[in-house]
Amino acid sequence: MEKTACRRTLLGIIVSILLLITQIFLGKTGHLIAKRIPYQSIDPFDCFVEISIHHAVELLIALAIILILSKLLNLDFNFQLGDMKKGIKYLTVFTAVFSVITIAQHAFMALNNQLPIYMFPLDGRNIIGTLGFQLLLSGPAEEVIFRALPITLLTYSFGTSIEIKGSVTIIGFLEKL
């Protein structure tokens, strides 16, 4: 039992280091490719296209890694749809609360003459491009890179639970299912 725990810990440390290297690689690769694509005619103020390309590249590479690892190690990265009714309910509540807070915050900033100053004009193209990035690329890319990939691989490598200092145990999500 002790030997298995030692191997699991060593595997977990190796996987942790490999995950860190992978995340650094994804970031650098995303920037490298984004810098090589000429997009100034679409986004002359550099406010959304470069970061969108960066996140799209990261997301595609991370999904390729997940596809390969799911086949090689027979891992489930939990991309199934959940309870749609509950998801729509939570999304609606979150959106409503977030909208109210955002409007109240901007109204407060406008009353105090503290609205942010942007380095680009707030025209339709820049607003739609920035919102498109924020809504469609930023969240999904980061969820895959910083949540789905690490949580699944760390749970796989450390096992379903990790004992820390004899009395504290972190239980992995697989034991709760």
Please mark out the parts with pLDDT under 50 across 5 or more consecutive residues, or reply none: 173-177
Over all CA atoms, what is the radius of gyration? Answer: 21 Å
Structural class: mainly alpha
Q: Reading side by side through the largest sheet, how are the strands ordered?
A: 1-2
What profile does the largest beta sheet have? Answer: 2 strands, antiparallel
Tell me the number of structural domains.
Answer: 1
What's the shape? globular
The helicity comes to: over 70%
Kindly state the number of beta strands. Answer: 2
Describe this structure in words.
Helix 1 packs antiparallel against helix 2 (49-72). Helix content is 71%, strand content 5%. The chain is mainly alpha-helical. The longest helix is centred in the first third of the chain and has 35 residues, at 2-36. The chain has a two-stranded antiparallel ribbon. It is built from five helices and two strands. The protein has one domain (2-84, 124-176).
Brief digest:
The protein has five helices and two strands; from the N terminus they run ααααββα. The protein is mainly alpha-helical and 177 residues long.
Give structural attributes.
5% strand, two-stranded antiparallel ribbon, 71% helix, 177 residues, 2 strands, disordered C terminus, mainly alpha, 5 helices, globular
Helices and strands, with pairings:
Layout: H1 2-36, H2 49-72, H3 84-111, H4 124-158, E1 161-164, E2 168-171, H5 173-176
Antiparallel strand pairs: 1-2
